[in-house]
Amino acid sequence: MKNFKILPRPQSPPHTCRTIYISKELADQVDLVSKKLDCSFSAFVREALRYALDTLDEEERQKNGQS
Question: How many CA atoms lie within 13 A of 67 on its CB side?
Answer without folding.
Answer: 0
